[in-house]
Amino acid sequence: RRAIAEAALLYRGTHYRWGGKSPLGIDCSGLASMAYMLCGICIYRDADIVEGFPIHAIPRERMRKGDLLFFPGHVGMYIRNGLFIHSTSHEGDEGVVLASLTPGHPRYRGDLRETMTDCGSIF
Q1: Active-site residue among 15, 28, 42, 90?
Q2: pLDDT tens for residues 60-90?
Q3: Which of 2, 13, 46, 52 is deepest in the core (most CB within 10 A)?
Q4: Is 74 a known active-site residue?
Q5: Residue 94 — pLDDT band, cuts 50, 70, 90?
Q6: What values do phi and psi take at 35, rounded to 5?
Q7: CA 52 vs CA 27, 37, 43, 49: distances in Å
Q8: In Å, how far are 68, 73, 87, 122 from 18, measured between CA atoms?
């Protein structure tokens, strides 16, 4: 779990680029798939849990470091203490950034917290 999260954090500050999957530009599913790939795990590159690939749904209360958070058309990776990393084109917050699911936190993204559709894990 730690290695997967650390791989995602290597991209922090990278510019958002739709379809991108490199330090020159990366999108949300590119970030998730590349973090796992750098740890030798091939996951489906999409913002959904896809049957036949190793990510399976888990209850939100069981999410831990390295698990994926799914939103409509978007995916992020849980880090710790309500923080997740994602690549976003959200105005004023573009690129690979940390965000929070915790109300009152300076990086809180209530729009994402309220629309989260699934949590997924390979563990």
Answers
A1: 28
A2: 999 999 999 999 999 999 999 999 999 998 8
A3: 46
A4: yes
A5: confident
A6: -60, -45
A7: 23, 17, 10, 9
A8: 19, 12, 10, 25
Q: Which position among 56, 86, 105, 119 bears the catalytic label?
A: 86
Closest CA to 29 of 47, 12, 48: 47
pTM for the full predicted model: 0.93
Instruction: For tokens 């399976």, name the residue.
Output: 56
Catalytic, 90? Answer: no
pLDDT per position as a tens digit, 20-31: 999 999 999 999
Cβ neighbours of residue 27 closer than 8 Å, sequence gap 6 or more: 16, 17, 18, 19, 20, 21, 87
Amino acid at 54: P
Sequence letter at residue 62: R
Q: How many residues does the chain have?
A: 123
Active site residue 15: no
Which is the catalytic residue, given 39, 42, 74, 105? 74
Instruction: Dump strand ranges (E) for the chain.
Output: 21-22, 25-26, 56-58, 68-71, 74-80, 83-88, 95-100, 118-121
